[in-house]
């Protein structure tokens, strides 16, 4: 014995009631029944859906401007801000005649978000100077293959005739700020 910290463990003899296990079983059932009548802490998704906040961060949208042109100018700030390195893009130059498709002279010919990497922090939304990317209240769909979570422009850019309203995500302070036309991104 090197120290005095060791203890001699004695195997305690079980009592009669412990040996028949009945009191333990009854007390276990009583605890289960008690919890049956309590309000559950979980929600039975997908039958029941939780109410979520207006600023809940779900699947991204790449917005179009009022004329239907893509707002993203492939500046890459969202990708730089992304802590999960989930965003990749390829920039391209707008050609003559494409003014209605892309708002700026440079646009993203390819834009991808890896939804398996994304942690829905919203930093891409914060970083974007063009108000082109927003997170929305939409859930990212489940999939059996990893490739299915690579969201390209086909899933990210909103359709011209089915716009996604993100106005509730913008606080009154942000809306006030947007009225200041001296900032080029507010024009
Ligand atoms: S929400 Fe966060 S993790 Fe997801 S793409 Fe945007 S910056 Fe990256
Ligand atoms: S979404 Fe915004 S930040 Fe990202 S590349 Fe496009 S314009 Fe730049």
Q: Which runs of at least 5 residues are low in confidence (pLDDT < 50)?
A: none
Using the alpha-carbon principal axes, give the shape.
elongated
Element order, helices and strands? HHEHEEHEEHH
Structural class: alpha+beta
Note the total helix count: 6
Name the assembly state: single chain
What characterizes the major β-sheet? Answer: 3 strands, antiparallel
Distance between the termini: 81 Å
Mean pLDDT: 91
Give the helix proportion (percent range): 10-25%
Bound molecules: iron/sulfur cluster
Number of strands: 5
The side-by-side strand order for the widest beta sheet comes to 2-3-5
Write down the Rg.
Answer: 28 Å
**Percent of residues in beta strands:** 5-15%
Walk me through what this model shows.
The structure is a single chain. The protein is of the alpha+beta class. It is built from 6 helices and 5 strands. It has helices at residues 16-20, 22-36, 77-81, 123-127, 153-156, 172-178, and strands spanning 60-62, 87-93, 106-114, 133-135, 150-151. The protein has a 3-stranded antiparallel beta sheet. The radius of gyration is 28 Å and the shape is elongated. The protein starts with 15 loop residues before the first helix and ends in a 9-residue tail after the last helix. The mean pLDDT is 91. The protein binds iron/sulfur cluster (2 copies).
What is the gist of this entry?
With 187 residues, the chain is an alpha+beta fold.
Tags for this model:
binds iron/sulfur cluster, 187 residues, alpha+beta, two-stranded antiparallel ribbon, elongated, three-stranded antiparallel sheet
């Amino acid at each position: 014995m090197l120290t005095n910290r060791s203890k001699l463990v004695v195997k305690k003899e079980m009592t009669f009631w412990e040996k028949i296990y009945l009191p333990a079983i009854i007390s276990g059932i009583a605890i289960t029944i008690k919890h049956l009548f309590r309000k559950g802490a979980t929600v039975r998704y997908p039958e029941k859906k939780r109410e979520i906040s207006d600023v809940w961060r779900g699947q991204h949208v790449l917005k179009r401007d009022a004329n239907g042109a893509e707002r993203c100018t492939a500046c890459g700030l969202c990708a730089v801000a992304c802590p999960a390195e989930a965003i990749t893009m390829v920039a391209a130059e707008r050609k003559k005649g494409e003014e209605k498709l892309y708002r700026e002279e440079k646009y993203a010919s390819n834009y991808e978000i890896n939804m398996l990497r994304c942690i829905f922090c919203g930093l891409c939304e914060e970083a974007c100077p063009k108000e082109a990317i927003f997170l929305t209240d939409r859930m990212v769909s489940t999939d059996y293959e990893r490739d299915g979570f690579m969201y390209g422009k086909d899933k990210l850019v909103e359709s011209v005739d089915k716009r996604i309203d993100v106005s509730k995500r913008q606080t009154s302070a942000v809306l006030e700020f947007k009225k200041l036309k001296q900032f080029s991104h507010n024009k």
